[in-house]
Amino acid sequence: MPYHETTILTLEPTVIRDSGFKVEDISAITNSPEILKGRVKTLHPTVHAGILSTNSESDEKDLAEQSIDKVDFVVCNLYPFKDTIAKINVTIEEAVEDIDIGGVTLLRAAAKNHARVCVLSDPQDYAEFLQGLDKGEVTEKSRQLYALKSFEHTADYETTIADFFRKKYASDGIQQVSLRYGANPHQKPAAAFSKNGPLPFKILNGAPGYINLLGNIGDLRYVLGAAALEAYFDI
Question: C-alpha distances in angstroms, 153 versus 79, 104, 107, 108?
Fold first, then answer.
C-alpha cells in the first residue's frame, strides 16, 4: 500500500506529526501510559501480539477475540549505550539507564516474524524501504536482509553491554585479566577474558604479558585439547 495510507504508532507523535502519515501515540492501542519513568512503554501484549502474529487461522482468531490489529512494520532505534559508556567517568547507574529493553524486544520480535513483518534497525535503510512501500511492496528478500541486520544489531548491542559489565564486575581475574602489553611493548595492553564463566587459569604471581599467555596456551593445548581451550576464552 502507498506509505501515506500507513498509520504510525509512536512514543513521540509530535516528532513526525507533519510527515504526511497518520500518527497515533502507542498508548492508543495499549490504553496504558509510560510508567517507571519510561522504563515500560511498549512491553505490552497488544503491541507484541500484533508483531508476532502470523496469517494462520488460529492467530487470526486470537487477534479478533482480543481486538488486536496486526503490525506490519517495526522501525526502532536503540538507546545509545555505546556512546554513553564512551563518556569519561561514566557511572554504572548512567550506563544502566541507557540499556534498551523495549527497543531490543521490538526488533527481535519483528525480526523473528520477518516472513510477514518488515523490521528496520538502520536509518540508512529508510529511503529504500519507503521506495518499496510506495510501489506497493517490500520484497521478501528485503525483509530477510532487514531481519538479519536487526539480529546482528541486537547481538552487537548485547555484546557491548556484557563487555562493559565484565570489565566492571569480573576484571580482577574472575572472567577477565589485563595483560602487560600486546605483541610489542609499545602496543596497547591486551586482555584475556572468558564468555563462559571463570577463566580456566589463575595468576599466582606477577602480571603476564600477551606473549607469555600465548606460550602457556600452547602448553595447555596438550592438556585440555585445542578445541576445548579455544572455545573457553578469547584474547
Answer: 12, 9, 9, 10
pTM of the model: 0.76
- Going by C-alpha positions, the residue among 104, 106, 119, 42 that lies closest to residue 73 is 119
**Distance from C-alpha of 29 to C-alpha of 22, rounded to nearest angstrom:** 14
pLDDT-flagged residues of the chain (< 70): 1-21, 35, 38, 173, 181-185, 217, 219-235
Q: CB-based contacts of 224: which residues, under 8 Å, 6+ apart?
A: 200, 232
196, 225 in Cβ contact below 8 A? no
The per-residue pLDDT for 160 is 94
Q: Which of 171, 224, 217, 225 is nearest to 194 (CA)?
A: 171
